[in-house]
Write a structure and sequence with these properties.
Protein name: DUF2007 domain-containing protein
Largest sheet: 3 strands, antiparallel
Number of strands: 3
Radius of gyration: 12 Å
Number of helices: 3
Strand order of the largest sheet: 1-3-2
Shape: globular
Order of helices and strands: EHEHEH
Strand content: 25-35%
InterPro entries: DUF2007, N-reg_PII-like_a/b
Number of domains: 1
CATH topology: Alpha-Beta Plaits
């Protein structure tokens, strides 16, 4: 089962809150931060909130996110 990006966030505290909320609802979630962009001068690329592909719909409902995201 593949991990998919649920949301890209630019606030570390918010990212942790969202991850914790998903975990509390029984939805495994992970945060990925890519520091590579800042090493080459690209700025902060954001924090990716990742969930299992089968959990996307439940995660969106749990966090009250729109059902469709253009980047995925």
């Amino acid at each position: 089962m593949a991990l998919v990006e649920l949301e890209t966030l630019y606030d570390v505290a918010l990212a942790e809150i969202m991850r914790s909320a998903l975990e509390a609802d029984g939805i495994p979630a992970m945060l990925f931060e890519s520091n590579f962009g800042s090493l080459i001068g690209g700025g902060f690329p954001g924090i990716r909130l990742m969930v299992l592909e089968d959990d996307v719909a439940a995660a969106r409902r749990a966090l009250d996110l729109p059902a469709i995201q253009a980047s995925n």
